[in-house]
## 1
Amino acid sequence: MSQAIGYSTTPPAGSSRFSSTSLYSTSQNPSSSTINNNPNPNRRESARSSIVPIQQQLFGGSTVQQQGNVNILDRSLNKTKNAEIALSTWAFLFAEVISYSQSRSDSIADLEKRLSTLGYDVGQRILSLLLLRNTQTSNLKDPKREHRLIPILQFVHTQIYKYVFGKPADGLERSSEAEDEYMLLLNESPLSQFISVPKDMSDLSCESFTAGLVEGVLDGLEVPARVTAHWVGDQYPDYPQRTVILIKLDQKVMDREESLGK
Amino acid sequence: MTIHGLWVISKAGGLVFSRSYSDVLPPQPVNTILTLAGILHGIHAITAKLTPTPIPGVPVGGLESFEAEGWGGKVFLTPTGTKFVVLHSIPQTGLDELMKRIYEIYSDAVMKNPFHTPEMPINSSLFETKLQTLMSGVNA
């Protein structure tokens, strides 16, 4: 469900729509392909040719122009492997994301859903990137991808969290009440450590973004689940910002696990 | 050195935060503190105006500290015009570092909080807890 929302609300949807029309139009609907397909490459080319002179005007030098011509998709994927950005940069960006989402939502649940939708898209991208990099560094001929539930959850707990937050999650627990519920614990999240939620919105957890991210990753690994974030800091005086990411797995996953056996 | 209290004064001269960290100074009603902060803001503006040889390009700082019998105040002006005023006992040491720490906590807990409106009273539990930890460290 959130997948559909993710595609409809985010800006990159325009570019993906563009590629899908050009893919389908040749075989399925020839008449529309001539209308739809032609203007797009033209527009793209005209846009590119108009950008270059502006860059020349702005920057002058030839080196800058060469760099400017390298498309983001043509750059080396591993160049940014160990790159990090300042925490403040992220904090200010995330604060702005929250204010933006808040001004466009009418309830706390709606705001959490918006943050979760943004996180979902991030999760999908991170999963593809990490899997590709893991394959490149380990063995190109024998790519590895987890398919069982527990290794997948451990992959999220260790690798995904390590990549996103710089350290693994502080715990992965199975709920004692329900079999299909797992919990990822984080004592202090780098994402929302500067945020203090006002009292009248105490239900809100800005970690919904992380929840969406986890949901995106799990969905990409064919483990559909409903992921929510809950603040439990009031029960742990030592960790006032402790947050639980609750993963409620789809019945389908539980059935599959059972049929696969031990 | 004991820290008696902290005021945060906005660019426009309004008091956006005030806390007392000791019971040495007589407690004042909020309205009195608001007035005092406003007067301090005015004095700061006057002293900035009276600076005899301003360096071109460098913003003119005004009042930096004041002293009374047994206690004093230190004023820290951020580049954006927010003022932190610390009321402390005399003699005092390490106030400059303390000011930098307060500024750091302010930028972390207040400016990075999406639920804070600039120039409005600070209503952040994180800001208060972090300050409380800092001040109890200094006052201990």
Note: Chain B is about 40% helix and 20% strand.
## 2
Amino acid sequence: MDDVRYEAPELPDAASSLLAEAGGSGKVFAGGTDVMVQIHAELIDPGVIVDIKNIPGTQGISESDGAYTFGAATAGMVLMDHEGFSSTWPGVIDGVALIGSIQVKGRASVGGNVCNASPAADSTPAMIAAGAICNITGPSGERTAPVEDIVTGPGKTSLADGEFIVSFSMPKRPPHSGDAYLRLTPRTEMDIAVVGAGVNLTLDDDGTCTAARVSLGAVAPTPLLVAEATDALIGTKVDDAALTKMGEACSAACNPISDKRGTKEYRIKTAAVIARRAAEIALERAREN
Amino acid sequence: MAKRSHITLSVNGDEYETLCEPDQSLVDVLRNELELTGTKEGCSTGDCGACSIRLDGDLVCSCLVLAVEAEGKEIETIEGMATSPEELHPLQSKFLEINGLQCGICTPGILIAAKALLEKNPDPTETEIRFWLAGNLCRCTGYDKIIRSVQAAAEEMRKG
């Protein structure tokens, strides 16, 4: 641990340059709830810690014509306490609310949760289901990518050296839309998902599902966007038959490991149950607006 | 050794100047550089809540905050909770009265967390208190009296 530097640039280009120059030894720092633990456990030994919170756009929530954008470093509690955002994206809030304690959520961000790239991250499947887009900046300029394209494996992302997520753009919400995220854990609080499921759907005036996205966490090396589960819902009234088919598609998409929290078989079986329950909550919410 | 940074921290309204390592945690600087040892360090990984403080009003674990990034922010620790030794905060009084502590290592963090809860929600249910304090572990497992102390303090504070 020699010659570690702390930098908190105000310009995105400066942050990109610092990270690109450092190569693998640069570490993006937002809420610090993963990075500080990794430093303490000597899992990482960064040469430069680049705090992105002074960069415009990385913090706070804004809304334009019904579409929300929020900074990748915005603390979870800020999102939860924002009435407009939390009533528009209750499923994203379900995921955020499950990230650690109140203290951890006082700092932890969705950008950090996505980029820490844990297969069991709680906000990532909710953000994938929501269809959120990452606004990324880096040495070769700005680009966008859907959240499902970021995590490539446990602890690994598709971000190039020097790139980081500045903010997330949420799509505009049509009427009769609802989302939900549920996870299965042995305990009710302060635990890591055995299975997580995010479901986002939109109904027409007759209650027929016109759009849907289903995402699973903790059942594969990366969070999954399950196209077959989506197909099972679109065009239906999200009735029992559709939910059963969606659940089967979820189980079929699982590629889990067995660990102390649950066996492979248990995860595959419960993925269908948790996804179904999440879909039922999303449906109820969609009917309410 | 890394180059030490010169920082100015505002803790409970007082300004402190000190040197710290770029990757030194705030709890470490509070305790070992500023000698404000009321804040405890338990797990150092954000699980136990013993190091709970307020950072610009937000309830956070100070083991997960870098001291260098706390510059320019208002830090509140347990040392700032009582108006004077004779005039404790209602939470502190009730914890004493109801024996809301055994060994006491979790107590500063729990008091800080409970104060943040009561500012947000002056009349929390038992369930709300338990969920809010889920990030504060009591190694003596004396949770029942902790919850009752918070309830009693909330009641007293509501009377004004």
Note: Chain B has a mean pLDDT of 96.
## 3
Amino acid sequence: MTSIAIPAGMPQYDDVPRFDVARVRADFPILDREVNGHPLVYLDSANTSHKPRQVLDVLAEHYARHNANVSRSVHTLGTEATEAYEGARAKVAAFINAPSVDEVVFTKNSTEAINIVAYAFSNASLRPDTDPRFRLGPGDEIVISEMEHHSNIVPWQLLAERTGATLRWFPVTDHGRLDESGLAELVTERTKIVSLVHTSNILGTVNATGRITQRVREVGALLLLDCSQSVPHMPMDVVDYDADFIVFTGHKMCGPTGIGVLWGRAELLAAMPPVLGGGSMIETVTMARSTFAPPPARFEAGTPPIAEAVALGAAVDYLTGVGMRAIQWHEKELTAYALDALATVPGLRIFGPNVPVGRGGTISFALGDVHPHDVGQVLDSLGVQVRVGHHCAKPVCTRFGVPAMTRASFYLYTTTEEIDALVAGLEQVRKVFD
Amino acid sequence: MQLDQLYQEIILDHYKHPHGRGLRDAAGPDVRVGEAHHVNPTCGDEITVRVATDGKVFTDISYDGMGCSISQASASVLHELLRGRAADDAAVVHEAFVELMSGRGQVTPDEEVLGDGVAFAGVARYPARVKCALLSWMAFKDAAARAGVGVSPTEVKA
């Protein structure tokens, strides 16, 4: 990177928080392995991230030393397990600056978190005595965007079908940005909820939400941000973002699979009817009817993923230790490097922003007319792991006129050498298919 | 992992120069036509296969689609192998190809039966790619059934 002298008194280049990537990599046992006789080059962290030893140890330690069910035992192990589980909730709450620990609902993943909100709308719509903000019917509108993951499309399509509400969406520009030009016509007094991806899992775009949030407040709608690709990669402050709900998933942020988070404003969660019924979510049960626990327990029916939650707490500790600002900056540098490097590959077309501004370290591209499956297969033979396909965002592929894309995505352990390996691998692809 | 086991020259050749590509209308009043459109939901690959038959022989097998080299080359080989064949005969080839692809690389293909299809033996070692290779063959089976000709009882366990 070219360095120019920044005048004294201004923020200096070295003021940016940094970390030692080699030391971070040493924490991730999987990064030692080889794939097909080559050192592993893992460029698929948007799909799932790897787990540091600190997280793996906590997971094993929980089962080995503290295993018991939560929230129902008087015995010592049960108390330890409950304290660990609730301790993880507190860590997650602090990580996203949630005003209250009780605003953090543990779910299976982002998909389940979005479905909880969608089904709360659905259930509220069946009853006249529920909060009107959650009641939907014909004439009401749900707004999403064309760059959503399927998990933020399908639940709303199903909700619209069940309630008679209308689904509308923001289009995407040729540069892979959200097209906000129709904001005033799209988000109106008819809108009940806007559910928007914060960082696109396919284009890498980080959406600026300010104008949309302001409009949502003007019309009295609710705002859900899908932060599955944001919370792992940048500092997240739910108060600053002024969202009503955010969702994210543990396995993309160095945590285990099977654990995700729905964060919601306390008064909104309190106004939402339950979705899954069962143990742990009740206040009292008679044969005729039941009353329900306050949030978050109301939305955590059944035995939760206890060890996974505890390990997610360890992942939050780990990321906090490295520093989210430093991780964000590291990925910004990688993205700038990768965009430059990929521009040298003949016939390569990037989908999404081609500058490292307002975008994260997830880059999708086409290599000539070589099918992404073939690109991915040749790269795999060289140890380079990328994702190919429609990335659970088929409308984005349709928008850009391709059936599938190849995607490289970075994280705190990614190095510029790995990006070099990708570029060298793409040369190999061209040799096979030219 | 040897990449050239997967991308054999024959496969790349069929991919770059596909045989019989493009959907064709059937000629003649007695010809029955069947068509099937199959999608691989994991990658978005699509193929439409159309068969024309007099009830005994597949007088034409035409196709169109988009997808990876394996799926497109496989459709080209399908066309080469089965066009002009009697239904019984085609069923034997179809079954042999499905068996090869389901064999996890343990099946030795018979070139007498499978012709260029033997090149796909390496693909069977890549579980993620078996579906690509079988896409057109499964669409063909459905298209043939719609034209009133049964081809193969074999179900795929890919």
Note: Chain A has two domains: 13-51+323-433, 56-321.
## 4
Amino acid sequence: MSGLEFLLAGTLAASLPLLLAALGEMVVEKTGLLNLGLEGMMAIGAAIAFICVYHTGSHVVGFVAAAAVSTLIAMLFAVLVIAVRANEVASGLAIGVLGLGLSALFGKTYESLTIKGLPKIDIPVLSDIPVIGPTVLTQDIVVWLAVIGTFGLWWTLNRTKLGLIIAAVGENAEAARAIGYPVVLIRLAAAAFGGAMCGVAGAYASTVYTPLWADGMIAGRGWIALALVVFGTWQTGRVAFGALLFGILSLGELTAQAIGVGLPSQVLSSLPYLVTILMLVVISRRKSGAF
Amino acid sequence: MKLRLIRRDSASRLAMFTAPVLALVFTCLASLVLFAALGKDAGAALHALLLKPFLSWYSFSEVLLKMAPLLLIAQGLAIGFRANVFNIGAEGQFIVGALCASALPVYFPDGDFPMMLPAMIAFGALGGTVYALIAAALRTRFGASEILVTLMMALIAVQILNYLLLGPWKDPRGFNFPQTVMFPDNALLPILFDGTRTNISLIFSLLASLFAYLMMQHHFRGYQLRTAGLAPRAALYAGFSAPRMVWLGLGLGGLAAGIAGASEVAGPLGQLQRSVTSGYGYAAIIVAYVGGLNPLGIIASSFLISVIYIGGDSATVSARLPVAAVEVFQGLLLFFYLLTFTLIRYRIEFSRKVPA
Amino acid sequence: MSQPALLRLAKVSKRYGTVQANKEIDLEVHSGSIHAVLGENGAGKSTLMKLIYGVEQPDAGHIYWNGQEVHLARPSDAQALGIGMVFQHFSLFETLSVVQNVSLMIPGKPADLAQKISDLGDQFGLSVDPHAMVHRLSVGERQRVEIIRCLLLNPKLLILDEPTSVLPPQSVRRLFETLRKLQAEGMAILFISHKLDEIRELCDTASVLRSGEVTGRVDPREHDARSLAQLMIGREMPNVAHAAPRPPREERLRLNALSHPRASRFGTTLEGIDLKLRSGEIVGIAGISGNGQQELAALISGETRAQEPGMIEIMGKKVGHLGPMARRKLGFAFVPEERLGRGAVPEMSLADNSLLTAHSRNMLSRGFIRRSVERAFTRECIDAFDVRTPGPDAEAGAMSGGNLQKFILGREIMLNPDVMLVSQPTWGVDIGAATAIRRRLLDMRDQGCAILVISEEMDELFEMCSKLHVLHKGHLSSALDAAETSPQEIGRYMIGAAT
């Protein structure tokens, strides 16, 4: 497989955890909340999914369980922020730490075990297209669902009344409440959605993309996803685009390490973080300083 | 029955003390359930976590050793947090502080000059400060979120550390372990109590606490920082410079973390090694919040978290608890603290709906 | 009365903590009637409306609709019965279009809704472009959108909360015509207001609220404003002592062709503003909020820096580039329109809130706060300005609007300023406090202070000012002599009909 083919085939899968987590957080932020606990919610999702797949052999069980547990953690955040009006930043950090800790606690005995990933699907006709057929268009089922889901989310946010309601709650919660929308419920639902998406993102990372569990395996991807929401200016398409860029970047890093470019591996490992900072600088310059 | 939060006329002093205690009680209960569910001896685990550290002078001295960096970093962070400057990458500033301090003994392994230790501390302080101020520059100049920038820089700092330990700074006679040479004696902090590892960095931390207390509670600069955090528009109205608050908040956080990092390599580690990334920078965030962002409260909370660290170490043996249990305990503690913290400014009123 | 009232409240009570907001309220509203609920700020009008609209639930009492008892757990319950509400601070979403705003409450295809909006607009004189973005609309247009949105639900009862407080006189005329047409269609209208003349002109019934209780039910057309006011505040209407203004002396504040681009798309660009303010005079800036008032106040106070130093002069010095602290040192003081979060920090004690701007009054010693001086200053402010509070340790956030405003005004006055900017001095303040505040400002003027007042309340401006300007869409009119102009003329400037 050439370097280019490797990139074409792997980008979608590599960007998937970032994409899902970022889209979930985007919806959360659109309703006026800010949940900093993505890293922890992804980690607990990853650990739970791995454990479930290891015992049941079913990815469906793994993904559902991951989504459920991460949603539960997200609900803890919602309780703090919505019910007792706690500081948003501290609350996000609290559940982040909790999620990371629980993932390490539960996952401890599963380190260095292996499970099977998901097969790539050969879709007739599509996979026969030259160059992109066997690469871009041959993906596992989750990737296809995520692609469809991204379009679905775009449609929901931009073309449906639900999207309008979410925008309204985010812009002026007081007014939304006054005209009869259950703001608390909508925010709760958004927080749950964000949690579920992080759970699925973590599940994909630990049971499909690299089917193994290791403490700290999320490696800052939750935080990068958070930055992607800013980068994407809260628009589905731009967030997805940003996630793809990072997918390419992480594969580029792998490729470069494999062929041994003249740079220390630590420089390559730092690249996503450096690019994130750069991205924030460029984007924030145009927008206001608010997070 | 309906629950309603009613704002108090002024923050309740009583609740200020009871909230953290309640949080600790809830955390213990939740941990008991969790540990039991994992099939561990929950009672033994809790005993180890909270009581063991007090049962011998040595383990208590270890608590004080842990407390020094946690207290120092948390005091620095809390100053920023109160001004709504969220430096969550103190871990990175801590590492850079450790790196900068280590540069001296690494390049002058038998450097026999008397100023070695003070110079190391100064280097560490400078490194941590500068590393944090990068985020301040990006925030004030470009509006980039300091939350994300400081965190990304913490992740980068780990890579810098790895690079140095695996490459240029590796001890040539260290059997290929990723660590530097052992530091000479004059690069080590004096021990405070004989027979323990507790060193004078605890004094630094207590001095920093005094400084933070005077500044935040009694000095106009602290008042400005608090105003900026509580009501940014009031700070603007009064004419307190917002960028200056960002520089100050991040700078002091970086300074504290840098000194803590330097003290770590010049203290219990005695060399630069990978275990310097033990998460003090992240734990200090929890210490700061559980201490109510109050300089005096932070002394108490840093002590508590240190107890749990040392207790956690012994629990791995006595109750076969994974090290991660400590992290879970901290997460729960912050969660319950935020939950009970509401009581300080609000009181809960149960209103019974009148059957109409 | 043979037919049951459309809406009837029987002994409805509501308490927030220790505050009894509504106490055993009885109220009857009939179809085809315009019913006023009259009361000053803090009398419990807003709470009552929230109960009727299902935003809050009463602690005790009964609500009947067409004779049937109802429980309104949420606004949608009220809407389902046929109750519509137009809020004082509009519940519109600025980033959405008119149709999108409407579609949040009314089901239907956007194209159909747009048609309905136009139709209703023609029928009741509520014209507005259905596809316009709300943030581009004037205040009057926004109110029309709110009313249209309510009317599309076919309400039998329409509640309007202080609808005229934000409108220029001309738009008030237009609103009244609309309301009379609705009344003719048989709709019941609840009209919440504290403006006596409007109520006497428009309404056929008035319920007067004072301290949460109904103190009178009258036909407002048969009472003069004086007796209504007495019902409303429970005593004679206080008069502001009009001392004869002394001739103004030297110039203390000057704006020279002050222009400033808007900071966001919701802001207003200021263009070529000229203004002179002299010692011993009060100059007023009339106009509806959102026409650049906030931007102008921030530029004068230094919270926003002007583009050139010479655009703003205080005490003869060019200060456009200076921050608020430097301007205060020159003798400038400022009372902002937002009390909580800007004029005062809600979570801090009054003593600590004194420090916010009065730190130069000997409150610091080498940067350390001198608590005794801080407390003494606060205590003096509380006494001198009749701030009702437990003491200097009470938190600002727990105080009523009027008391906090008196505190902030007092704090700024105690700085002995030579020039003062006061923005919306009596917003949300009860009549007693409002009168006290105006009296203080006149005293300051007599002592030689130069005062600039930005206000939406035209009566207030005419009462205090010798000269008036009008701010409309970022342009400031030239100075009008208050003795020679009229509210009608000011109104023409407010809607841009005169320049």
Note: The domain at 7-233 of chain C is CATH 3.40.50.300 (Rossmann fold).
